[in-house]
């Protein structure tokens, strides 16, 4: 019985500790500046999130036009910090501007780190 309960806890624990993005959309304002609208879920049972560091990956506008082997797909990874309180076991929608890079377009956004109300920092995506 103990092994059964332990296996269930091991299977559930990653889901309990996960902070996740959902409904992420890239939009442009009237001046054609890119901004992101995303919902962050705080799955922690005890701590409130106070700030989130996002990483935005960019790819070339024209793709791998010249050389399929050596041409890099991603130009860079830019970081953006968003401050906002998310109580434990709840979600919040954020809207924030991202850097616009010439000849490159935003490709993917991920959470790098999260700061909790007690000052602890949790690294989510370590590349």
Q: Describe it for me?
A:
This protein has 127 residues and is mainly β. 13% of the residues lie in helices and 53% in strands. A 4-stranded antiparallel β-sheet has the order 4-3-6-7, with no helix packed on it. A 3-stranded antiparallel β-sheet has the order 1-2-5, with no helix packed on it. Strand 1 and strand 2 form a beta hairpin. The chain is elongated, with a radius of gyration of 18 Å. It starts with a helix and ends with a strand. Residues 1-17 have low confidence and may be disordered.
Compose a concise summary of this entry.
Helix content is 13%, strand content 53%.
Show the helix and strand layout.
Elements: H1 2-17, E1 20-28, E2 34-42, E3 49-60, E4 74-86, E5 90-97, E6 104-116, E7 121-123
Antiparallel strand pairs: 1-2, 2-5, 3-4, 3-6, 6-7
